[in-house]
Design a protein that fits this description.
about 5% strand, mainly alpha, two-stranded antiparallel sheet
């Protein structure tokens, strides 16, 4: 029982082996300095490029011009006593008749508002320039509505 096996004796380190090697030098501080330098150079280059692009863009674009307002906007609020009859079809309108009448009356009396409201139904392909064109087809010289656009019924 006191005898040791030969396998255990072979796996035991002997005193004749060399001492363990010293750990290598850590380059962590040098690596941190290099990364910080790269970040600083990158931020400097990015801000400089952005500033140059902004300066070039402002030099290329002319001064902002003001677009002329639509002709109907010059009429301003325009109360109208006599309106032409509404273009009701045989099919019922999408909204109650009172609501449709109120929308057409607003379009007649406030071209300065509707001329700036874009239309989202796709009728710009038909030549409409704003929401007023969806309700009013023609006005006389004084700005009174002479003909309705049936497109506003939908």
């Amino acid at each position: 029982m006191g005898r040791k096996s030969s396998a255990k004796a072979q796996s035991r380190p002997t005193s004749s082996t060399a001492p363990p090697s010293e750990p290598g030098r850590s380059f962590t501080p040098l690596l941190a300095v290099a990364i910080a330098a790269l970040v600083i150079v990158g931020v400097f280059a990015y801000t400089r490029t952005a500033h140059q692009n902004q300066a070039a863009q402002s030099a290329d674009t002319p001064a902002q011009t003001v677009a002329e307002p639509p002709a109907a906007a010059a009429l301003g609020p325009h109360p109208q006593a006599n309106l032409p009859p509404l273009p009701f079809d045989s099919s019922p309108p999408a909204r109650p008749a009172e609501v449709v009448r109120a929308a057409y009356t607003f379009a007649a009396e406030h071209p300065e508002v509707l001329s700036y409201v874009p239309c989202y139904c796709g009728c710009e392909r038909s030549g409409h320039r704003g929401n007023e064109d969806c309700f009013v087809t023609a006005r006389d010289a004084k700005g009174d509505v002479t003909q309705w656009e049936p497109h506003g019924m939908t």
